[in-house]
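User: My instructor asked us to take a sequence, write out its structure as tokens, and then describe one feature of it. I'm not sure where to start. Here is the sequence I was given:
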Amino acid sequence: MFEWLKKHKVKIICALFVIVFMTAIFFLTGNSSGNGGENGSLETATSGDAEYEYASDINADTEYVFYASEEETEQDIPKDNDIKTDIQPVTESEVQSESNVTTQEIKSETTQESTQSNSDNNTEVPADTSYENTEEKSEKHTCTISISCATILNNKDKLDPAKEGLVPSNGVILSSREVTFEEGETVYDVLERVCMENGIHMEQSGGYVEGINNIYEFDCGELSGWIYSVNGWFPNYGSNSYTLKDNDVINWVYTCDLGYDVGGGN
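Assistant: Let's start with the prediction itself. The structure tokens for your sequence are:
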């Protein structure tokens, strides 16, 4: 027994200390509650100019609840007259003034834009000389052209019967007329344009004219076909290779004898 007590003396001492401490707390708490009465009491405490009331409950640890007195409450609550605010009422005149300023700014911006636009419109635009230069480069020239198949009238025995209705009574398909051409154009260029403008059929191959007004080579004999002359001369090369000059005279004629019957035999 003694050895057990000696072995556990530290634990025993701690337990006794806890018991003594709890007992002391119990007696102290009971005395404090007894002083308050059965239902507790309401006491008044004064701190400076303000008075506070507090209550204690004997069934629990002492709690203090403070209530501000009526006098202090009234002093702490600000009255309506004492409330100040930085928000100032906006008067109708101020609204109208601000509206006028905005309107003036808008008018000013509109005026500036209008002035700028008028200034842009009044800006002098340099004369466009490209058109004049083009006119100079594409200066018009004139020449005279005609188309005839009158030689067929003297060789009807050789004419394909299916083509008799295509030969005019006087042999003139296009009477002599003056036309314009541009620098660098050829005899063929003028023929193609004139036939298109007057609704005359024309067919070619590689610049060689095979038929005009549906009258083709060999339609009036083995030596027949279309040839051209410029100023009375019959070139021995294609019409798409002959570059025209101003006032040239072009004659397209149908030959039945390799050009000999129209003055162009070689």
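For the description part of your assignment, you could build on this observation: Residues 35-70 have pLDDT under 50 and may be disordered. Try explaining in your own words what that tells you about the chain.
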